Amino acid sequence: MFNVEDGSKKSFFRYENGVVLMMFFTFGFVFMERLSVVYLFPFLGPDLKFNNAELGLIVSVLAICWSLSGFVFGTISDFIGSRKHVLLPITLAFSLFSFLSGIAKSFGAMLSIRALMGVSEGPVLPIAQASVIADSSEQRRGFNMGFVQSSLGLIGSTIGPLVLTYVATKYSWHAGFYIAGIPGLIMFFILLFWMKDPNKRMSKEQLAKHEHRLRREDYPVIFRTRNIWITMAIAALMMTWLFAFTTFAPTFLVEYDKYTGPEMGIITAAMGLGTFFWGFMGPYISDKWGRKPTLVLFSFVAVLSPVCLALIHGSVLVMSIIGFLTCAGQACFPLFMVVVPGESLSPKYVGTAVGLVQMVGELIGGTAIPSIAGVAADHYGLQAPLWIAAAGAAVSGFIAFTLKETAPIRLRSARDTSQPMSV
What pLDDT digit, counting tens, does each position of 125-152 carry? Predict the structure, then answer.
C-alpha cells in the first residue's frame, strides 16, 4: 500500500504519508469514542437518571486512567523500542469497551467501563505521535503531527456528534455506543498489516547501540528539560479549556439555550470542524512562524469559544459560524503536547515525554476540572463551566511566553543571525 523505501518527495504513496493517515484515523476514532458519552448524555442521562456531577465524574475517571496509562505505556514503548506491539492490542481493547458502554444499566457499570476505556485509549496519542515524528521530514514535522491530532476535530467533534446524535434520536443511545466501536476494529486490521516500526529501518550498528530504545540512565534527561515543565503547565490549563468546554457545551445548548438534539449536533459539529481546520493550520503556521508565537496567539483566541457560547444565543447558522471560527484553541494541542516536547528531546524520548505532558494535563484539566465544573454547573448554572474554560485558556497564553523556541526554521534563522559575516 505505502512504500516504506520510497523517499521521493513527489510520491504520495511514501510511508511518511501512510503513517500520518493511519494515525490520523486511529486517534480520531479514539476521541470519537471518548466523547461519545458527552454527545449521548442528553439521551442516556434522563434514561439512567444521571445528574451533571455524575457526568463530570464519568468524564473524570476516564481521564485519570487515560493519563496514567498514556505515560506508562508510552514509556514501555520507548523501552522496548516498538510502537506497533503496544498500539495493536490497545486499539482492539478500546473498541470493545465502546460496545460494552452500550449495555451499561447503572452509574457504577458506566463508570467502570469508561475507566477501562481510559486505560486502553491513553497510550494512543503518545505512541501514534512518536511513530509520526520518527518518519516525518523536518519541513513537515509540525504539519504532520498537527494533522494527526486535528482528527479529534474532524472525526471526534464533527462526524461524532452528527452520527451519534442521529443514531440516538432514531434508535437509542445504546446503538450510538455500538456504532462508535466499529471504526476502531477496522483500524486494528489496517495497523496490523501496514504499520511499520521505525527500528525496522535502522542499521545493525544503530540497533546494536540501542539508539531506538530508551535506557534507564537516559530517563532523568526528560525532567531536566525546561520546555517539558512549561508544556506540562500549558497542558493542564488548555485541557481545562478543552474538557470544561466540550463536556458541558452539548448539555448547555440543549438545556439552557433550548436547541433540539439534532440542532445541538449541528452546532457542535461546526465547532468540531473548526477544531479540525485550526488543528492542522496552527502547526502548519508554526512551521513557518515558530512554535512560541503560534501558541501564544491561539491560546488567547481559545478564550472566545466558551465566552461566545455563554453570551450569544443566535440561530443554528450563526452559532455554527461562531463555533467554527472560535474553536481555534485546538491549534495549540499538537504544539504543547507533541511538537515542542518532541523537538526538545531526541526521538527515543518522545513516547515518554508526550505521555508525561499528557498525564499532567489529563490529571488536572481532564480529571479534576470536569468534576469541579459539574458541581459548579449544579450550583451556579450551566454557564459556570464555560467561564472556567475561558480562564484556563487565558492563563495558558501568558505561560506560553516563557517557552524556548524549537521550530527548525527559527533556530536556523537565529544561528545565521549570530554568525559573523565574512569579509
Answer: 888 888 888 788 777 888 888 899 888 8
Phi, psi of 215, deg, nearest 5: -100, 160
Burial class of residue 317 in the structure, from the number of CB atoms within 10 Å of its CB (0-12 exposed, 13-18 middle, 19+ buried): exposed
Q: Which spans in 290-339 are helix H?
A: 291-302, 304-311, 316-326, 332-334
pLDDT in tens, 156-193: 877 888 899 899 989 999 999 999 999 999 999 999 99
Cβ pair 329, 29 in contact under 8 A: no
DSSP string computed for 180-217: HHHHHHHHHHHHHHH---GGGGS-HHHHHTTTTS--GG
What CATH number should be reported for the domain whose range is 216-405? 1.20.1250.20
Residues 6+ away with beta carbon under 8 Å from 105: 48
Q: What is the pLDDT of residues 364-404, one digit of tens each?
A: 887 788 778 888 888 888 889 999 999 999 999 999 999 99
Written as one string, the DSSP assignment of 294-306 is HHHHHHHHHTHHH
pLDDT confidence of residue 201: 54
Instruction: Tell whether domain 14-198 is in CATH 2.170.190.11.
Output: no
Spatial neighbors of 78 by CB under 8 A, at least 6 apart, are 130, 213, 214, 348, 349, 350, 351, 352
CA angle 293, 303, 253 (to 5 degrees): 145
pLDDT of residue 209: 47
With cell 477501562, the residue in question is 116
Where do the CATH 1.20.1250.20 domains begin and end in the chain? Answer: 14-198, 216-405
Q: How distant is the alpha carbon of residue 414 from its chain centre?
A: 31
